[in-house]
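Quarterly update, task 2.4: zinc ion-bound model.
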Amino acid sequence: MTCHEIRMSLTAYVDGELDLDELEEVELHLKECDSCQQLVHELEETTALVFAQLNSVVAPLNIENRVMERIADLHQEHQVHHLFIVYLVCGFLGICGIVALLISPVGAFVRAMFHLFLAVLNGLSFIPSSLGSWWILGTFLSTLLVVGISVFGVSRLLRSLKSEVVL
Ligand SMILES: [Zn+2]
């Protein structure tokens, strides 16, 4: 075999991947050829260096946890993105609903109620500030009085109806 033919299978020879016939041929050639022997020597050194480098590489501490955390983060980011789209669509549908409500005949009623609400707010703001917060207490107490009278009246009415039924 020529040097060129032998060199094609030298890597396999160094890695121990040759079958018996090929191995015999290569070894026979190597006994007689110094340059191929030199090449085998260099190949063996390079392989040893590569293995030494590979063995010196140590996985960073906690790499598994960090990878899992990163995956969880990515999953969360994806979910947040998904939720954002859902909220966006819901918001758009809500705005469409409000616009449709305002345009439709029901919208006139909604608008009227809104104006009434604004008018009440306006009226409240016209109460003189010299009264301070006493007017709130006054309003609250008079509301309580009205509610109390109503409840009292209703309960009396119910009682009288009951007694009429009994009689
Ligand atoms: Zn040779």
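Highlight for this quarter: The mean pLDDT is 85.
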